Amino acid sequence: MNFVSRGFRGRKRDVDADPSRVPPGQYVTEDFPVLSTGPTPHTPLDEWTFSIKNGGGTKTWTWDEFRALPTETPTVDIHCVTRWSKLDTTWEGVSVDTLLEQVEHDAPYVLAFCDGGYTTNLPLEDVTDGKAWIAFAYDGEPLDPEHGGPARLLVPHLYFWKSAKWVRGLELRDDDEPGFWETYGYHSYGDPWREQRYAGD
Amino acid sequence: MARTAVRGRLSWQIATVDDIVVETARVRTIVLGVSEWPGHRAGQHLDVRLTAEDGYRAEREYSIASAPGEPVAITVERLDDGEVSPYLTDELRAGDEIELRGPIGGYFVWDVEHGGPLLLVAGGSGIVPLRAMLRHRRRSESDVPVRLLYSSRTIEDVIYRAELDDLAEHPIQSPAYRCSRHGSPYMW
Fold first, then answer.
1. Do B73 and B122 belong together in one domain?
2. Looking at the domain assignment, is residue A138 inside a domain?
3. Do A83 and B59 touch (CB under 8 A)?
4. In A, which residues are within 8 Å of B51 by CB distance?
5. Residue among A9, A181, A198 minimizing CB distance to B52
6. Segment holding A67, helix H or strand E
7. For residue B21, pLDDT beyond 70
8. Of the residues B57, B72, B104, which one is the last residue of a structural domain?
9. Which of A35, A46, A59, A119 has the fewest CB atoms nearer than 10 Å to its CB?
10. Residue B53, pLDDT score
11. Closest residue of chain B to A180, computed from CA coordinates
12. Residue of B44, B107, B121 for testing the chain A interface, max A β-carbons within 10 Å
């Protein structure tokens, strides 16, 4: 049935945003909202490491080793499941491809893990071939702790809860282990263009 | 704690606006008649979807303001440059229909079985899910100690003020208000 909300017209649709860049159910914001489930961690850089766990083995980078890796500066649109989208955000980070080059692997899934215990699961193919970064700068500045600094996962083609703040590593897995929000009923994959907000969407 | 709060697919359904309660100058509580509601937990939210005549849609999420077992209600603060909240606070009338789906979320919830004590901290409309918890606690006749710290711009902006004042008379659950602008703190 064609339901209409009596008297609702919506905002004047003269927003500069290209509608083809805004997924269904999303609105464009100029702000950068902050949503988190707990206190913001502040891990000193001399204690920070990034690890890739692969079965029995673990490859670890210190902050200095991580920052010595080649970086990229993607400009991407990001989409939060709480319905805000932010266009043309500019980041600097290390491509996940660059990190995985140093690890033997054939696992089909990754589970990102973070300071504070947050986790999120992704298919490996969604963090490879130039689709994901470990980002340490936003808009030319070091990434603010409230936005996930010193480093966060950046996977802009999926809902932004997949772009885990305060990321400390990736666990390569044979099975698709649900992460934090995925366990609480959010979608396992989270494609904003298919509105995969909750399990079953 | 239950690990899965959303079972199966959440479907959109049409709800009827049964009542609108004026909370403050900018805040309304919208009481909804929902025919197929599976029940909710204190702290969960729901999705609201509005559709214009030309098919344009806007969706937002709102915390559920009512306790489990009470009629579904949301409390909405009007944001002057908002797209959905001015419609919900200014245009919507009892008898209108809106589309919603829910309940959603299983992390920020409190069930009476979780026990306590509880320290609830909110600013502005952040009180809404905590009010659901306070009501759930009272309806369950729980004696879990609870303290609410609540900050508002002004005393006139305190949402659920009469209800919170009433709760404060109970010796073990005293809300404390702090107003960040205009005038001195009240009951801090």
1. no
2. yes
3. yes
4. 3-5, 8
5. A9
6. helix A63-67
7. yes
8. B104
9. A46
10. 93
11. B107
12. B107
Task: State whether the Cα torsion A31-A35-A39-A42 is positive or negative.
Answer: negative
Nearest chain B Cα distance for residue A66, angstroms: 33
Nearest residue to B44 via CA among B2, B99, B97: B2
Distances in whole angstroms, Cα of residue A162 to Cα of each of A52, A82, A151, A196, B179: 17, 13, 14, 12, 37
| A29 token code pair | 């914001």
Q: Specify the pLDDT at position B3.
A: 43
B137-155 pLDDT, tens digit per residue, is: 999 999 888 888 898 988 8
CATH number at residue B142: 3.40.50.80
Separation between Cα atoms, residue B8 and residue B101, nearest integer Å: 12
Alpha helices in A94-149 (DSSP H): 96-100
In total, how many domains does chain B have? 2
| B57-86 average pLDDT score | 95
Q: What is the per-residue pLDDT across A74-124, written as a single tens digit (0 to 9) for each?
A: 999 999 999 999 999 999 999 999 999 999 999 999 999 999 999 999 999
Chain A, chain B: beta-carbon pairs less than 8 Å apart: 83
Q: Which residues have CB under 8 Å from A106's CB, separation 6+?
A: none
pLDDT digits (tens, 9 = 90+) for A147-159: 999 999 999 999 9
Structure-token pair, residue B157: 């902006």
Stated pTM of the model: 0.84
Task: Kindly list the residues from chain A whose CB atom is less than 8 angstroms away from the CB atom of residue B4.
Answer: 183-185, 199
Q: Is residue B26 part of a domain?
A: yes
- Among partner residues A3, A10, A198, which is closest to B99 by beta-carbon distance? A3
